């Protein structure tokens, strides 16, 4: 078997492992295995690529792999679960940035794509624009999630969209001049810089509550840019891997946007959320009713059904194991316990699923929004643990609220509600939650993990 045939065979094996590994990511029980299978596939694809004749300077390749491993592995191991969304945004951005740099290198090595087929120039410039947008946009998303930047929309008002359009036109104009034969490197730099500014200006006006969708969208863009670069380089592995990432990211983005009852163009045009606004001022009784761990335990111990609603506050407190212990205690007393999972609870897609799977919560107890919403009216107690915007009735009732129209968990239909929270601060969308002032709602203030542990101890004593 000659080397070219061997490379193609290895690529086919790698693609099969990519797809098989992706299938494993559909459920928590198989996700780890699926991730390892896909990683093995990527390793095989890298080896196959290195076997291509004339691949390049092996010393630099090995040095790059070593540097990436030394930085990436410890960083990934040390990251907390609450910071995984930031890590995903950052790592995704690095992929887009790498594609943009490769496009620049190809431009320089080919003397401005001189004597290259038109599709190579077009694919490379597409990859440069999209990769640059993805890199800089992902860095802004990282800054918002890490709270280095305000979670609220940051923009220039009515001039925002015209400015974004101008930046896009500048980038496309420079790219068109390059394709038509102008080999000036300043034009290529113009493509990269204008796309970079566009990436920043697109994500800055998007509020914190839309960040899960933004991360997914940027991930899809990175995949598309990688596929385009693979087309320009005639690298089958890059094309297939990029298309898988782009397609899966696009599907996930669309599903999440639908779950929030919002269109992707509306989100990109400047989403809701972010720490400044409060929507329409809340009317009616503004009394907050406090409860204690013992009272909460009594309520739940004598309930027929309890629904636990996890949110970002549970992730921050790392309370998932304590929640599982409390649920086990309730089930031992004959109480049916379910977990209500909103598709955008937390800071990234599947955030709550991952946390609860880590605590070995049975997967059949995790109920998606459409399924669990039918159960709240038959539920004695709903316990909300650090979830804000996804339980706010204003999304259904207040047309002036920035989250109006977003599907929520119908927690307010339960017979009683217990909210575990540190204080009365609003959620990531920056709006007050009317649920907290509902007469049937009581607040148990404090660290979620400590509060759940206290409730569990009280349950043991009953």
TrEMBL record:
It catalyses: NAD(+) + NADPH + H(+)(in) = NADH + NADP(+) + H(+)(out). The chain crosses the membrane at residues 6-23, 35-52, 58-76, 88-107, 119-142, 163-180, 186-206, 213-232, 238-257. It is a multi-pass membrane protein. Its EC number is 7.1.1.1. It comes from the Bacteria. The keyword Heme does not apply. SUPFAM superfamilies: DHS-like NAD/FAD-binding domain. Keywords: Cell inner membrane, Cell membrane, Membrane, NAD, NADP, Translocase, Transmembrane, Transmembrane helix. GO terms for molecular function: NADP binding; proton-translocating NAD(P)+ transhydrogenase activity. GO terms for cellular component: plasma membrane. It is found in: Cell inner membrane. Its main location: membrane. Pfam families: PNTB. The keyword Transmembrane helix applies. Residues 8-457 form the NADP transhydrogenase beta-like domain. Belongs to the PNT beta subunit family. The transhydrogenation between NADH and NADP is coupled to respiration and ATP hydrolysis and functions as a proton pump across the membrane. This is NAD(P) transhydrogenase subunit beta.
